[in-house]
Structure formats: structure tokens, C-alpha cells
Amino acid sequence: MGKKMEIIEGIGVSPGIAIAPAHKIERGEITIEPENIASEEVQEEIRRFREALQKSKDQLVRVQAAIAKTMGDESAAIIEAQIMLMSDVSVVDETIAGIKNKRLSAESALDIVLRKAIDALESADDATMAERAHDLIDVRRRILSNLMGMAHHVIQDVPENRILIIQHLAPSETAQLFHGKYVGLALEMGGATGHVAIMTRTMELPCVLGISNVTGLIESGDTVIVDGHDGTVIVNPTKTVLKKYKDRKKAQEKHKAWLIRFKDKLAVTTDGHKLSVGANLELPGEIETVVKYGSDGVGLFRTELLYTRSTKLPGEDEQTAVYKELADTIHPNSLVIRTFDIGGDKFAEILGTPFEPNPFLGWRAIRIGLSRPRVLKTQLRAILRAAYKRNIKIMFPMISNRDEVAQAIALLEESRDELEKEGIRCAKKIDVGIMVEVPSAAILSREIAPLVDFFSIGTNDLIQYTLAVDRGNQRIKDLYQSYNPAVLKLVKYTIDAAHFGGIWCGLCGEMAADPRATAMLIGMGLDEFSVNPPAVPMIKGIIRSISAKDARRIAEETLRFSTQDEVIEFLEEKNRELLPPEFLEI
User: Fold this and answer.
1) Strand 11-14, strand 207-209: pairing
2) For 39-148, CATH number?
3) What does each C-alpha distance from 204 to 5, 22, 197, 427, 540 come to in angstroms?
4) Does residue 278 sit in helix, strand or coil?
5) What's the CA gap between 47 and 64, in Å, rounded?
6) Boundaries of every domain in the chain
7) The domain 6-27+158-237: what is its CATH number?
């Protein structure tokens, strides 16, 4: 008798259907009990530690080479974070000191050092720090596995055509998914705006997150269906259910082929209103995907990877080379570079500052840049150098008041003056914009508009800051409402403020790629959508199927509602009325 079918609900973060055998990686906790050694065993333990450390580094170097082969050197650099952690002098010295001075075994000494660092990162309750903790957890597991002669699970060591079942993935592990052996993922940890969600959407891998005890519910070899749109995972489906999803998968592939016709079309409404549909870029290695789907440039390049991939700050020359290559690849379209948008945890490691209990509301992004101007100016100099005779724009994140904008622009001008005095070629003029993601910036957008050339609304953070909801907290996920009328009113006010000030306004949050929102945003007056690359043809197609006049009526009506449910019901009804049936299948 076959296994009983089970239906598991999670959070769909990357659309599409995957049907394949499961490959489960169950990484149980490696528990290390304190173990003392005799004095004559000290040198042998140090030798074992150094040998395991070198073996671990060699393994990661091979992983890095595999990623470089498929994605390019810049994307492979994400592995550098773990390699650098293994080379951290304090980790090595403290472990050896534990062996020498406390007569601890290599396993015990290493565990004490890394556990202390992991606990500090995890207690901060911040998404960026959690990803750093995952890197450190993986480093701990890898070195201990090599010390103890245990097999270390490597996610690419798997047959073709499998669905990955795992508790969590560190950013460095997620990058390895580009090797192409997996066709879908089901994970316990992660949210709709985390690194796994963003990267799997770009890789077009169906993915469902937030499944409690996923590794206890699914076994390797089980037939699994992952529906990344509905957030459903079906284990050991019946023949009837399997046929249903195979048919749906074929229909989706046919539909995707239909949508691709719009990739090289202009984003213009039926009554001649022209917009722009750019792409969000997470990894430099994804730039070819941006080109493949006909994006009107890069509306948001997240530079965080350059800062989180190692234990040192990226240099000016290193950054300049990355920005130049990206801009040249998408020429003549523009590259919008957002300055680093990460929490103080990364800089705490490098600059020796204390961790914060609430980093989302603390020292992060532009606040770090303005309080550590040398760090920000290094990036500004790199951007200005790369922008010489290239179509590059700069964007400052997490702006909360007008003074911050003025200070950031002053640092930009200082950086330009310095470069010119040094005789280094740089852009004389560069368009400057800000992310509008803090409610105070939206409310002050009329006052800020005269200082800049454009706005880009970051709805992911604007939603959580407006509604006081942690977007990664599963307990209150229902309160994270993208279509809450308070959020929509701030979006509309910001767009109007931009136009009143004579500048353009884009939107780069997940709302930009939601087909339910397209007509409403056009009607609100949005000038640019910036979405994950595979969504570009769909958004262009919807834009080309409606009139700006109808869109304005939809926006006006939407802003009269008082609940999210009313908004969504209305938008779905209008889509059924105005769009070709092919778009309703999305």
C-alpha cells in the first residue's frame, strides 16, 4: 500500500510548479559536551583543529569555483563570507587558546568560541544578522563534521531533478542553487522578502517557505509537488492529483511562453501613456537574466552583497569594477545603485561597535553612512568613477527626514571634489534619488522632492514600518497587509509629491510585481515599476492591455476603501473586466 497523500500549507514566495522526488537534508544539531585532554595531547589537538580547518576551507573553495563557473566570479564571492570566517584570527587564536590553556579538546574549544558568536547574532532579532548567524552555523557544522569524521551535507551533491527539503539555507548556500539540479524548494525558515525568496524568484525555482517541521514531514524519495504561487506542498499525491498538477504545470509553461512576447515591447498603455519596467538586481551574476527578460534597465541594485560577503569592507576599486561591468552590460539603459542598506551588525564586527536589540529601528543604512562618512564616501567615490560616461543613478536608503538627504548629497559632492582634485575621472552630474520606505519620508516627500531627481517607493519596508509589523514574524503575518489603505494612501501621496516637485517616481517593492496592483499603480501616476526579472514581461503585458484613463478610475475608487479585503476584491474584479483572460491565469 502506498503512502498517504499529505497537503502542507506554507508561504509561496517564488511562483511555479515543481514535481519531483524529494531530497532531504536533515542537519541535526551537533552537540558537543565539554571534554578535557591531557597536557601531552595538546599539540595533537591543535594539529587536528588546523587540519579540519584547512579541509573545510578547501571544500568551500571548490563550492566557490563551481558557482563561478555557472554564475561568474562576483556571484561566487558570496562564499567568501564563510571562507573569511574560517580565517578570522580571533576564531583561530581563541580556539587554540582553549586547547592550550583550558586543556579542551579541539571540538570543545571551537564550539565554545563559535557558540558565543552565534548566540550574539541570533539574539539581535534582525533579518540580516540571522543570515550572518546561518553562515556561522554552517561554518561550525562544517568544521566540526570534519573534526569528527562525519559527512557534511553539500546541497549540490544530488542527482538531477530533485526538490530540496531543508530547514534553512544561508545566503552562501542559496547561491549554489544556480547549478540547476534542483527544480523546487520547501523550507521551514524564511519569509517573502528574505534572501531565499528573492533569489529563488530570480532563478525561477518554485519555492514554499514557513513549513513547520518540514524535514519531519517529508522523506527523501517521496514524490513532492511544490506550488510556489499558492504556497502548497503536496507529499505523495494520488494519481488524480498528480495529473492535475502536471496539466497545470504544462499550462503555466505555455502561459510563460505566451508572456515572453512582451519582453521587448514598450511599456505603454492603450491610450499612449509610457512607463518603464526595470529589474531588481540582487547578485551581479544575475545581470544576464535582467537582459534576457527585456528589462528597461536596473531599477534597484542591492549592494548589500558587497558588504556581507566577507569580514572586511569592500574597497573603492573593487566596487568601481562591479558597477562598471553592470552598467556596460545593460547600456544604454540605466543602472540605479542603492547605497548599502544593511544593519549595524556587519559594521559592529568590523568597527567594534556594540550590537543593538532592535536593528530595524536602529543604526542601519544611511544612518551608518552619515555617522561613518568614510565608509559611505568610499562607495560614493566608486559610483562616481563608474558613472563616468555611463548611465548610472544613485539612491539613498532608509531616509527619514530632509536633513539626511542634504547631508548625503553633501558627502556626494565632497567625494566628487576629491576625485577631481586627485585627477581621477568621474561623473560631473549624476541623478540622485531616495528610497521612500519610512512613513516620515512619505509624509515629508513634498519637502524632500526639490533636493533629488527621483523617488523609489520601497513598499516592503514601508508596509512594516507603517503597520508596526515585523515582516519576518510568522505569528503576525496576517497583519502584514500590502493593500492596507494606510499604505496605499502613502504611496499615492508620495507619487503626487514627486510630480508636484517635477521629478519621477518608481516603486521597487514586491507590490510592483503583483499583477493585482498594476492598474492601480498606473492610475496613481507611477512612472516606473522595478520587479524581479522574470516578472518584467508580465508587467509590460498588463500595462499594454489597459488605458491610463481606466487605471485612474481604478486608483480613485481603491483609495475610498477602508480595509485590505475590500481593496483586493475590487482590484481582482477590475482585472477580470479589463484584462485579456491570459493575464487572469497568472
Assistant:
1) antiparallel
2) 1.10.274.10
3) 26, 18, 10, 36, 18
4) strand
5) 26
6) 6-27+158-237, 39-148, 267-585
7) 3.50.30.10
Q: Per the structure block, which three cell numbers stand in for 264?
A: 521587448
How many DSSP H helices and E strands does the chain contain?
25, 16
- Burial of 353-366, coded b for 16+ CB within 10 Å and e otherwise, reads eebbeebbeebbbb
What pTM did the predictor assign? 0.75
Q: How far is CA 17 from CA 12, 232, 434, 438, in A?
A: 11, 10, 37, 35
CATH number of 267-585: 3.20.20.60
* CB atoms closer than 10 angstroms to residue 183: 18
pLDDT at 345: 47
What is the edge-to-edge ordering of all strands in the sheet holding 223-227? 6-9, 232-235, 223-227, 17-25, 162-166, 182-187, 207-209, 11-14
CA dihedral 136, 142, 144, 147 (to 10 degrees): -140
Q: Any idea which residues carry the catalytic annotation?
A: 195, 508
Answer positive or negative: Cα dihedral of 136, 138, 141, 143: negative
Q: What is the mean pLDDT of residues 102-113?
A: 92
Identity of the residue numbered 462 = L
For the chain, the average pLDDT equals 88
| Per-residue pLDDT tens over the stretch 429-471 | 999 999 999 999 999 999 999 999 999 999 999 999 999 987 6
Cβ atoms 146, 49 nearer than 8 A: no
DSSP secondary structure string for all residues of 194-228: SHHHHHHHHHT--EEE--TTHHHH--TT-EEEEET
- What backbone phi and psi angles, to 5 degrees, belong to 25? -115, 110
Strands 223-227, 232-235: pairing is antiparallel
- For residue 344, pLDDT over 60 is answered with no
Measured CA to CA, the distance from residue 174 to residue 177 in angstroms comes to: 6
